[in-house]
Structure formats: C-alpha cells, structure tokens
Amino acid sequence: MIAASARSKHMADIYQNGELILHGPVAGDFFGPNAFTSHDVIAAMAQHGSKPLTVRLNCPGGDAFDGIGIYNALARHKAGVSVVVEGLAASAGSLIAMAGSEITMCAGSMMMLHEAHGVTVGPASAQLKQAELLDRLSGEYASIYAARAGAAPDAVRASMKDEIWFTAEEAVEAGYATKVDKAKAKSFAAFDYRAYAKAPEALKALALKNNWTAGERPLSASAEKDRADRLQAELDALKASSQTEKNRQEQASAYEARRLADMRVPMSGLAQPGNRGSRSGPTTWNDFLPK
Question: Do the Cβ atoms of 68 and 93 come closer than 8 Å?
C-alpha cells in the first residue's frame, strides 16, 4: 500500500493545471515513479469534475486490463476527452488514446498496436488457459481500434499480430488519430523498448543509452528464444551434473563389490577340523560376512 503522502505526490504528478498527464507505463509503482494505474486516473478524474478533459499521453504500454479500465473511464466522461499524444502511445497506451473524441499526434510522435502479451507459470493446462485469455483480450482491443478507425476487426487484428508502428501522419491516415499538431513531440517515456519485436531502432538505442528497464515485461520473440535457449543450457548442465554423480555412485558401488569379493577367499589353517585345538567355527572369510 502506498502511503497517503506518496499518493498525494503521485496525484500531483498526473493531474496538473486541470489536465491529465499520463507520461509513463500503465503499471504499479514497481515500474517506476512515472507509472500510473486505472485507480490513479479515476481519482484524478474525480478531482477534475464534469468539465472537458485534456489527456497528455506519452505511454509505452503496460497492464492490458488496466489499459481497458482507463479507456472505459475516459470514454464515459460525458464532457468529452481530448487526447494529445506527446511522445508515444504504444500497446495499452494506444488503447487509452482511442478514448479521445479528438486525438492529436504531435509532430514526431508515434503509435503502436500489437496483441496482448502475458507470462504464465504452471502446467500445460494453465498455459492453454492463458493463451485463450490473451486471444480474447486481443480481440477486445481489436474491436475498440476498429470502431475508431472504421475498419473491420479481423483486418485490425491481423495488423496487431504483425506489431504495427505508425508515425503521426500514418496514424491519422489509418484513422487512429484525428490530426497532427506541428508542436514537436516531447521526449519518449522511459521504457525498455527492446521488449517490442519491431520497435524502431532509434527507440531501442535510446533505451540502451539510458539503461531504461521496465521490470517484468513481455519479451520479443527473439528475446524469448534466447531465454529458452539459456534455460535449456542450464537444464542440460544440471542433467550432466546429475549423471556425473550417478556415475560416481556406481563406481563406488562397483569398487565396494570388488573389495568384498576379494575378501571371499579360503583362509588355510584357520580352525580347520583335525588341527590341534580345532573347534567348530567359520573356515573362510565368507563365513564372517553377512549373508
């Protein structure tokens, strides 16, 4: 839970001069001080009241369900919402932009649409359920995009699967924005854009230069393959180590068996019947060994 003073400071960051400033990822504080949630946005809207609202957006994406929550909260604002994309509207950020009755792209800004991502830990049944959930969630996103652009949902969904990036002018042409403002876009929000498979190289370089990270995040196909290869290598090493230990134990057992076998030989003169002072008892080392 965030302390009241911290929450007040956060509210002051996202609600300034009667405008909603959404510059950061859609996520909890774990993703940095600029992250925001649907709870933050709804609280700021309550403070704003029933007046027209301007949303200044520079969002690299984040939690898909929170993104839908923010979109719906803004779309229901009866006084109307104007969205200004000041840097980037990507993933859940682009969905939030769709809530605007007017969507303005600043010169140099960008927009990105893709399918919902997720991480699942569990057996095959859990993976299948997650896949079904992500498929449905992507379908919901596609419906919202399609309604804005006046396009067929299936066509939009196909472009989402390809992770499509738009310049300001291209976003307007595709119907995802209404106009381009000559005002220069602000710096892009701090985020590890390498998480996206087709992010512009300039954004990837910017993230690398500034050492931007985004905590736990969806991986691109290439990054996912690298991680899978690394985990497989670790598993192979573990199996090799286990096999080495098994071989060592087998060698120790074989050595012990040979040692015991060497002891199982007749011992001449050991209490043989007829010898002076002979007595009943074991006549070989075998008789001393456990049966």
Answer: no
